[in-house]
Amino acid sequence: MSTFTAAPDLAGFAPPPFRPHPLLGDQHVQTMWGTVFPRPLAHAAGWRAVGRPWRLALPDGDVMTGRLHLHPDDPGRTRPTIVLLHGLEGTADAHYMRGVSVKAHALGWHSLRLNFRGCGEGEGLARRIYHGMTTEDVDAVVQALAADVAGPLALLGVSLGANKLLRLVAGYGASPPPALGAAVAISPPIDFILANEALGKGLNLVYDHYFLLKLRRKLAVIERLHAGDAAVAARTQAARRARRLREFDERFTAPMGGFRDVEDYYTRAGAGPILGEIRVPTFIVAAEDDPFIPFRMFREADATIRANPWITPIYTAKGGHVGFMEATRPPDGEPWMDAFWAENVSLLYLRQVFQDPGDH
User: What is d(CA 241, CA 216) in angstroms, rounded to the nearest whole number?
Assistant: First the structure.
């Protein structure tokens, strides 16, 4: 299986513009709508029928899990397989994960809804924690799937998962796995320092507290998996007293992840400085009004992004964080589309890449 030898010509890629729902124009409403209200998942019966558990044993003994959907019309797996990566404290069952997977099935493609270490069905199966730089886990998934498929792979990540895939693809440089054909990053926090600063302001403290509560819930599982380890016990106890996500990362994520301190973690985790190294067709979607991913980070990386022909960015004035909710599916759209614009255009991008007539 060969890969692209040059950036694909995407001159014909013209996705429909984002038309925010007239009643969901506020950045916070856009951000919370898709999380609070589950989508109907129209035409999902066939997708549900083919879903099956998926597990991958990692070299260190931890196990990652997910949900694999293989399209029955392609037993040879020659069509694209989309690997979906969730955000901070998400799971394979997040609404956006299910939504993209259903749409991929409608296109006749395969998909894997992946849980990061210790997330979803994988809770209790991983001693190590996931964080913004555990790209080796996603690489292990790519390598495992590449051995099973005849068609191309794509990575599609949301929020933390989006930044993680950008770091991974940039890390591959000029030698990505031959099976990896494209990547999509929706609302990626490419600068962790700016993102954390934003979380400490105004209404964003609601999101900060939300993430903190979900992370705290896992501490008991970590303690059980590391029973008898005094250092881990001290870190979990300190993390329980955290009042901000930054404090949690300082007391737990950074030391457990092998970082010098939280500043070291935040400085190194964001993908912004290394986007110029990407040599895989990559689509980035971000909103200027994202409440806790300040658009300043994309302005600062703009020269690098624009100079890299492998990256196609689309920025919208509105949309919030992973929101991009329209009133209805595009009137001139396709049957598989719904009102979640970013998901629709991401799959349009992937279809354009995989139909590219160039050398790949």
Answer: 9
For residue 250, the 8-state DSSP code is: I
Helix (H) or strand (E) holding 64: strand 63-69
| C-alpha distance from residue 308 to each of 25, 177, 281 (Å) | 32, 19, 10
Give the span between the Cα atoms of 271 and 279, in whole angstroms.
Answer: 14
Question: In angstroms, what CA-CA distances link 50 with 59, 72, 95, 111, 301?
Answer: 29, 8, 18, 11, 41
Which residues are bridge partners to 65 per DSSP?
55
pLDDT single digits (tens) 309-330 = 999 999 999 999 999 999 877 7
If you search the block for the tokens 């014909």, which residue do you land on? 12
Q: Compute the half-sphere exposure of residue 199: CA atoms within 13 Å on the CB side of its CA.
A: 19
Sheet strands side by side (includes 81-85):
51-57, 63-69, 110-114, 81-85, 153-158, 180-186, 282-287, 311-316
State yes or no: pLDDT of 280 exceeds 80. yes
What is the total residue count of the chain? 360
pLDDT tens-digit profile of 202-257? 999 999 999 999 999 999 999 999 999 999 999 999 999 999 999 999 999 999 99
Q: What does the alpha-carbon distance between residue 285 and residue 280 come to, in Å, rounded to a whole number?
A: 16
The first and second tokens of residue 57, run together, are: 């044993």
Q: What is the mean pLDDT of residues 179-196?
A: 98
Read off the tokens for 18.
């984002």
How many Cβ atoms from other residues are within 10 Å of residue 272's Cβ? 22
Mean per-residue pLDDT of the chain: 94
Using CA atoms, how far apart are residues 71 and 49, in angstroms rounded to an integer?
Answer: 10
Tokens at residue 302, please?
A: 């703009």
> Which of 161-165, 221-225, 329-333 is the least confident region?
329-333
d(CA 280, CA 156): 13
CA gap 199, 294 in Å, rounded: 10
Measured between alpha carbons, how far is 18 from 346 in angstroms, rounded to an integer? Answer: 12
- Tokens representing 260 are 């010098």
Max distance between CA atoms of the chain, in angstroms, equals 61
CA–CA distance from 210 to each of 90, 206, 295 (Å)? 12, 6, 22
Are 170 and 274 in contact, with CB atoms under 8 Å apart? yes
Cα–Cα distance between 117 and 128 in angstroms, integer? 7
